[in-house]
Amino acid sequence: MDRLEEKLLRASGVNQRVAKAIEDDADALIAREQQILDRKTAAFKPHHEALNTRMKELDTFEDKLKILENTDPLQNIGDTGEKKPVDAMLEQAVSAALGSDASHKPGS
Questions:
Q1: Which one of 67, 79, 103, 106 has the largest count of C-beta atoms within 10 Å of its C-beta?
Q2: Are 54 and 46 in contact (CB under 8 A)?
Q3: For position 23, what pLDDT does the model report?
């Protein structure tokens, strides 16, 4: 009879012990959440920085194009075969936006 009472006593605590074990695992997952978010942020950071750099370069390029749009339209009349100031400015803006690497120039 003692053995049966001992088993019943142990059995009555199963639900509480299982609930505690499940809660402990859930707490462990919750505790890891910030670590995972920190790693995700670190993994994407260089990619966001690279895109931010490209966006700044595009902004600069667009600003230079806006300056060109406000030039005197008569400045381009008559083609003498040499670069006009507007063409030189456009080429400079493109070079600045893309970098001076020759592989980016047309015909390379």
A1: 67
A2: no
A3: 98
Return all residues near 64 (Cβ < 8 A) that are at least 6 apart: 89, 90, 92, 93, 96, 97
Distance CA 18, CA 24 (A): 10
Q: Two tokens at 92? A: 């400079």
Q: Which backbone phi and psi does 51 adopt, to 5 degrees? A: -65, -40
* Euclidean distance between CA atoms 4 and 56, whole angstroms: 77
Assess contact for 85 and 68: CB atoms under 8 A: no
Residues in the chain: 108
Per DSSP, 78 falls in state: S
Amino acid type, 63:
D
